[in-house]
């Protein structure tokens, strides 16, 4: 998989050199290019933003540098992703879809957003998705892109951690995880639930499933099918 990132903070993406994705990059399973949007400006001050037409607070990212930056990376086979609080919600299903693509381009907006014509133009040459990590305010798309790349990257065949993602499929209709324990069997007066020491695999599976249902009901009832409400 090839990933291109356009940003005014290329240094943010130094962390992609470490951990799981760093290894995937070294193995050339995932190739990442980080591009500084300011390299596509032509004025002395390398200006990337301007005041909004129609008035209002904040600044809007100018279309010209974005056009040149995207022209340099997009092909007809690319999926172009703009992280935005106004986008569709990112889920594990989104990550699986994107993991099947050959080329992802991430456009990181800052300020009050990118001139809408950039998104409209990109949509005329490739598949475009505006995707939101969640309903909270970030200063820009960079951190959201990092999360998306981690979620997608570990699902790409050959990336270490891919095996773990296969169990994810077996998460019984999207329940939360059961609690985990390791040695010692007693720690600071707290014992591991005895069933986990029983060697009774049927009882353990039943207990873990009950824990999943109880935890999901308590903290994420929205995940439960209405039959289990
Ligand atoms: C948010 O992906 N997001 O969720 C996102 C991207 C850029 C700015 C934002 O405020 N929430």
- Determine the structural class based on helices, strands and strand pairing: alpha/beta
Task: Summarize the helix and strand pattern as letters.
Answer: EHEEEHEHEHEHHEEH
Provide the helix percentage: 25-40%
How much β-strand is present in the residues? 15-25%
* Mass-distribution shape: elongated
What's the total count of β strands? 9
Largest sheet: 5 strands, parallel
Q: Whole-number average pLDDT?
A: 93
The distinct bound ligands, ions and cofactors come out as: 2-azanyl-3-nitro-phenol
Radius of gyration from the CA trace? 22 Å
- Report low-confidence residues grouped into runs of 5 or more: none
How are the strands of the biggest sheet laid out side by side?
2-1-6-5-7
The termini sit apart by: 40 Å
Query: Counting H and I runs of at least 4 residues, what is the number of helices?
Result: 7
Strand-helix topology:
Blueprint: E1 2-7, H1 19-26, E2 31-36, E3 49-50, E4 60-61, H2 63-73, E5 79-89, H3 92-99, E6 103-107, H4 116-125, E7 127-132, H5 142-153, H6 162-168, E8 186-187, E9 190-191, H7 201-219
Parallel strand pairs: 1-2, 1-6, 5-6, 5-7
Antiparallel strand pairs: 3-4, 8-9
Helix pairs in contact: 2-4, 3-5
Bound molecules: 2-azanyl-3-nitro-phenol (JBK).
3D structure, described in words:
The structure is a single chain. It is built from 7 helices and 9 strands. It is of the alpha/beta class. A 5-stranded parallel beta sheet has the order 2-1-6-5-7. A two-stranded antiparallel sheet has the order 3-4. α2 runs parallel beside α4 and α3 crosses α5. The longest helix is centred in the last third of the chain and has 19 residues, at 201-219. The mean pLDDT is 93. The protein binds 2-azanyl-3-nitro-phenol.
């Amino acid at each position: 998989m090839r990933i291109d990132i356009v940003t005014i903070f290329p240094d943010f993406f130094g962390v992609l050199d470490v951990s799981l994705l760093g290894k995937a990059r070294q193995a050339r399973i995932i190739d990442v290019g980080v591009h500084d949007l300011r390299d596509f400006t032509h004025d002395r001050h390398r200006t990337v933003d301007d005041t909004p037409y129609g008035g209002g607070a904040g600044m809007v990212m100018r279309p010209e540098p974005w056009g040149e930056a995207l022209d340099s990376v997009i092909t007809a086979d690319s999926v172009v992703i703009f992280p935005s609080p106004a986008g569709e919600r990112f889920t594990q299903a989104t990550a699986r879809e994107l993991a099947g693509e050959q080329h992802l381009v991430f456009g990181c907006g800052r300020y009050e957003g990118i001139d809408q014509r950039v998104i409209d133009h990109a949509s005329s040459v490739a598949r475009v998705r505006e995707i939101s990590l969640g309903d909270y305010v970030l200063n820009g798309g960079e951190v959201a892109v990092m999360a998306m790349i981690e979620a997608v990257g570990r699902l790409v065949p050959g990336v270490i951690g891919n095996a773990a993602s296969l169990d994810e499929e077996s998460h019984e209709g999207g329940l939360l995880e059961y609690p985990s324990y390791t040695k010692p069997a007693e720690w600071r007066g707290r014992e591991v639930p005895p069933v986990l020491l029983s060697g009774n695999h049927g009882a353990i599976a039943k207990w873990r499933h009950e824990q999943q249902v109880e935890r999901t009901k308590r903290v994420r009832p929205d995940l439960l099918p209405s039959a289990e409400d």
